[in-house]
Amino acid sequence: MTILLLALRRLAASLPTLLVILAGLFLLLQLAPGDTVDALMAQMGGGDPATAEELRRYYGLDLPAAAQLARYLWRLVQLDLGQSAIYGKPVATVIAERLPVTLMLMGASLSLAFLGGIVLGVLAARRIGQWPDTLISTLGLMFYATPSFWFGLMGIVLFAIHLGWLPAGGIEEVGAGHTGLARILDIARHLVLPTLTLALVFLATYLRIMRASMLEVMSLDYVRTARAKGLGETGVIVHHALRNALLPMVTLVGLQAGTMLGGSVVVESVFALPGLGRLAYESVVQRDLNTLLGIVFVSALLVITVNFVVDLIYGRLDPRIAAGR
Amino acid sequence: MAALTRYLRNPAAVLGAVLLLLVLAVALAAPVLFPKDPLGLAGRPLQWPFANPKVWLGTDASGRDIAAQVFHGARVSLLIGLVATVIAIAIGIAVGAVAGFYGGIVDDALMRVTEAFQTLPNFLLLLVLVAVFGSDITTVTVAIGLVSWPAPARLTRAEFLSLRNREFVQACRVLGMGDARIIAREILPNALPPVIVYASVVMAVAILLESALAFLNLSDPNVASWGNLIGAGRGVLRTQWYVSAIPGLAILVTVLAVSLVGQGLNDAFNPRLRGPAPVKTAS
């Protein structure tokens, strides 16, 4: 239970952070040329200044900035993210429609990068200095240095255009009318390339950290003890070393949750996936700042949630954290 | 000197230095080899590489010389990477030094802001900045610097925390030195090496961030950036995939060079800590 309390305390500590983010973004958007009313008027095909004035009063845009900020924060507490100018729907609705694709993409990529990182990192650490280590480390460096969108494009060229194995974009076959299992398989097929694209960069980081962490743990006394009592190498790794070596990896997941969301903007654009990242891109291009702000808010919430879960996992992996403090 | 010897004995680090020098040479040679505007018309559009000796890497869909764009793109990438890194490191050092030196409420407040920046996906923040302030090359560079400072700030803070109560600092206090002088002249030189090494990570990320932004058509369209060229090649990806492939290789080589040099420096200056290079936190 202690770990839950600890994690909850960390969660409470992230509230001021969230407040800083929101206030900062709000002030930033005050600097942006044009406001919601300008966007609305443009959508209506222009209008007279009197109407604009009335609309500003209606939306509270004539109030001083501090009062507007207070109103804005109060609306956010009620999860009212305002109205999207280009979609003509509440921002919360638009985001809720797009969120599942991004969560699927992130979940799949994270799992792939995490598991792949563990396996490759352990392999490299076991064969340190020999060819498997050199090969894995080199591959890691290459993945690390490659822009993800370029990986995606080359993946499309190879697997979609030349080999024809996988679809080039979209989340499902439009008009194919798949239902049930067929639809799930179809979506999975569409997610293979995007998942690989997003995962490779993170796989590179994870395998590097896992390798280093494994090397460190394998040099500790308790591992020598485990060997001395006659355990095989696999037993030592699986039952003794792995759990401790995983701690830095779990920290990294929390640290990089935001980065992964940022990466999904690019990947979703490459593969035309109707996700949150694609929505962020569209709202930048179409100057829909209300939607953009909503996405940033939801992303921050998502990152805070991931870190909360990471704290919980941390406590399970290392009971000392729960017991000690 | 010992560090230099260690650096030169590390083949990966030497390879990185060679690649980096190569990119630098390409950037310097660009105005000499391709004096004309790289975004100007060079010939028939979509010529394959090595088909026409006049445009040996071929032309893109608008008939612009790919080789010229790749060469001039090296200038853009290196410049953006360098300037954005200087901005990020400068902010990071300032914030980290003050937070680590004074501690207490100042530290708490500054760390809240740092956490706020780290909680936001930095590419999303970059999109917001570009949406608000526009996307000419100066704005983009400053914006990349502005989203990249939290990690250097944390690193500087950690160094300052471990140094601020050392004896030499206490000696300075006894001598009556002012805080500003102790921070800048006494502690900072000791705290700097890991931050400088980390700068390579910041620079690699900055180059990748700009290319991603340019790929999405959200960076300055009036400069020959590698990301712009990859984005332009998307329309003809089905048949003329080389338009996107070539500048991507250029980015790969540059980022690889910067990372290898950074890791080499890290290993050379901390020979006992041959651990992992600091973690990259960007797309």
From TrEMBL, chain A:
Question: What domain of life?
Answer: Bacteria
The membrane topology term of the UniProt record is: Multi-pass membrane protein
Keywords, alphabetical = Cell membrane, Membrane, Transmembrane, Transmembrane helix, Transport
Give the residue spans that cross the bilayer: 103-123, 135-161, 191-209, 249-272, 292-315
The ABC transmembrane type-1 domain covers 99-314
Tell me the InterPro entries matching this sequence: MetI-like, MetI-like_sf
Cell compartments where the protein resides: Cell membrane
Give me any GO biological process, just one: transmembrane transport
Keyword Isomerase assigned: no
Q: One GO cellular component from the entry?
A: plasma membrane
Q: Which family does it belong to?
A: Belongs to the binding-protein-dependent transport system permease family.
Provide the protein name. Answer: ABC transporter permease
Q: Which organism is it from?
A: Methylobacterium tarhaniae
- Which lineage is the organism of this entry classified under, starting from the top rank? Bacteria, Pseudomonadati, Pseudomonadota, Alphaproteobacteria, Hyphomicrobiales
Automatic annotation (TrEMBL), chain B:
- Cite the entry's keywords alphabetically: Cell membrane, Membrane, Peptide transport, Protein transport, Transmembrane, Transmembrane helix, Transport
The cellular location(s) given in this protein's UniProt record come to: Cell membrane
GO biological process annotation, one example? transmembrane transport
- Gene Ontology CC entries for this record: plasma membrane
What's the superkingdom here? Bacteria
A Pfam match is: OppC_N
Q: What is its main location?
A: membrane
Give the ABC transmembrane type-1 domain ranges: 74-262
Provide the topology term for how it sits in the membrane.
Multi-pass membrane protein
Q: Which InterPro entries match?
A: BP-dependent_transpt_permease, MetI-like, MetI-like_sf, OppC_N
Look up keyword Protein transport and say if it applies: yes
The UniProt transmembrane annotation reads 78-102, 123-147, 195-218, 239-261
PANTHER family (alphabetical): D,D-DIPEPTIDE TRANSPORT SYSTEM PERMEASE PROTEIN DDPC-RELATED, OLIGOPEPTIDE TRANSPORT SYSTEM PERMEASE PROTEIN APPC
Q: Which family does it belong to?
A: Belongs to the binding-protein-dependent transport system permease family.
Name of the molecule in the record? ABC transporter permease
